[in-house]
Amino acid sequence: RGLEASGAAGASWALPLCVTGLLQHETRLSVLQFGVSKARDYAPPLANKEELLLVTGVRTFEARPVYSTDTHGADKHKMERYLHAGRPSVGTVYAPIAFGPLPLLCFKRAESGALVLAASGNVRGADPDRILLKKIVLAGYPVRAHKGKAVVRHMFYRPEDVRWFRPVELWTKGGRRGRIREPLGTHGQFKAVFDGPIGQQDAVAMSLYKRVFPKWPRSMAFA
Fold this sequence. Notes:
Radius of gyration: 25 Å
Order of helices and strands: HEEEEEEEEEEHEEEE
Shape: elongated
Distance between the termini: 19 Å
Structural class: mainly beta
Strand order of the largest sheet: 9-10-13-12-11-14
Number of domains: 2
CATH superfamily of the largest domain: Translation factors
Number of strands: 14
Strand content: over 45%
């Protein structure tokens, strides 16, 4: 239906022609989630947001997936910088809506132009509400420490930054938890209080999280 006679006459019939129909909303673009595992025979590292050719169902398209931990029952998921071998992850891409279960093959284009199978998995469906978080750790070192109090430097370099991040919890490699009390001086040092004594050889850190999204592929053609 809708195919002109001239188009049918010019088509190549050397190979079988597969004609399929789409369900409702499958022509709309959304955030697609899929479970994925790295192929055993693929040795090179597979970095986050690296362009791949995805083959799923009747569609073949290029995408730049973001990988995250496959944590069941959690509402937030930590982003992974690489797709690790032997550990399942979840990939997130911008793609047309697809309803599972659908098999998925991920191909990486080699320098010679050949396609190499890099990963495989299955489509889980469209879920734009899945939250992916990138973790960043800021580290500092105590200048003076006495019991549960310390003066920390090299984490910030302006007192304005100390005041901005004051509500965020601090932690040390020794397992202590603490809070920023107030900035000290004009070079980013600050006073902090902890739930126990810390030593000057300990390191003070702060965990920050940022929500991340997939990158748009260079080609938006969904065959």
